[in-house]
Amino acid sequence: MIRVMVVATSPVVRAGLSAVVTSNPTLTVVGSASDLDVLTREVGLQPDVVLLDLSGNLQQSVWEKLLLIQEEQYPLIIIVIVEELDSIDLEMALRSGVRGILPSTSTESEIVAAVEAIAFGLVVLHPDFLELLSVREKVVVNPVQTLTPREIEVLGMLGSGLGNKAIAKGLHISEHTVKFHLSSIFQKLGVSTRTEAVAVGVRLGLIML
Fold first, then answer.
1. What CATH number is associated with residue 165?
2. Which pLDDT does position 114 carry in this prediction?
3. DSSP string covering the chain, please?
4. CATH code of 50's domain
5. Are 115 and 153 in contact (CB under 8 A)?
6. pLDDT for 38
7. CA atoms of 196 and 171, how far apart (whole Å)
8. What is the pLDDT of residue 130?
9. How many domains does the chain have?
10. What angle do CA 101, 106, 108 make, to 5 degrees?
11. What's this model's pTM, rounded to 2 decimal places?
12. Is residue 209 domain-resident?
């Protein structure tokens, strides 16, 4: 049974999403919250997936709040539902635990399928969102040998949405060392952002999301 927490400002939306979740026998709603402050108090319910509606008034500072929950309380796996796909900062979303991005026009079956896929470790991006991603083609000479094992490990943790502090803690190294590794990774892969590094890493088979 996949445990789902529903978060939405509107009571009507919360009820609707909860109904969608419970319509599938493999999913169950363990709780609901009206905003991220309530979610912070309810993470003890340990949901497998958080279904977060951002079509209301949750957009402001949402990533910072989610990141704090990830680093200080409980690592969440999140699907966000948004009205405007281009309003999403993919890098911040990944760091904050987002593993699925769906438009508010998604059907019930699409939402259920996304929850199930993410619970099994996959990443779900709507086709319309993929069109917004403009990762430049990179020419990398023998990248698997170019990156050191530690750099591939750091890149994999980037793909898991972890920030520098969490990576440092996980690898028992300093944040300064993490920044050094990131700088080297960016240079070797020919990228300038964390998002591009993850995207190129996935495309080259260096990491799996």
1. 1.10.10.10
2. 92
3. -EEEEEE-SSHHHHHHHHHHHHTSTTEEEEEEESSHHHHHHHGGG--SEEEEE-SSS--TTHHHHHHHHHHHT----EEEEES-GGG--HHHHHHTTEEEEEETT--HHHHHHHHHHHHTT--EE-HHHHTT--PPP---SSHHHHS-HHHHHHHHHHHTT--HHHHHHHHT--HHHHHHHHHHHHHHHT-SSHHHHHHHHHHTTS---
4. 3.40.50.2300
5. no
6. 83
7. 22
8. 67
9. 2
10. 115
11. 0.61
12. no
110-138: b (≥16 Cβ within 10 Å) or e = ebbbbbbbbbeeebbbbeebeeeeeeeee
pLDDT along the chain (209 residues), means of 10: 92 94 93 85 83 71 76 79 77 82 90 92 79 50 66 92 92 90 88 89 82
Count CB neighbours of 205 within 10 A: 9
What is the C-alpha to C-alpha distance for residues 40 and 74, in angstroms, rounded to an integer? 9
Q: Give the model's pLDDT for residue 149.
A: 84
The structure tokens listed for 146 are 């170019």
